[in-house]
């Protein structure tokens, strides 16, 4: 029951990491080359870093909620299966 299963192909994982690196890198280069004062560039870079961090936190929270719900459903299903397995329809009620 404790088996790890990776549902994503290697190609998908590589494409995901490359697109993330490209998006952050190109945005960083764009911020660096803006014709504005350094404090404006720093402010925009800080916003980029905060946005990326918040995105990771949101994705982790959504994944954790989904896994928690899946676990709860499996526990409920196991309880129902146990009750059904223990039920004997021919046993007289008390």
TrEMBL record:
Transmembrane segments: 12-32, 38-59
Domain YiaAB two helix: 12-64
GO BP terms: DNA damage response
Keywords in alphabetical order: Membrane, Transmembrane, Transmembrane helix
GO cellular component: plasma membrane
Pfam families the UniProt entry points to: YiaAB
PANTHER family listed in its UniProt record: INNER MEMBRANE PROTEIN YIAA (PTHR37290:SF1), INNER MEMBRANE PROTEIN YIAA-RELATED (PTHR37290)
Protein name, entry field: YiaAB two helix domain-containing protein
Taxonomic source organism: Archangium gephyra
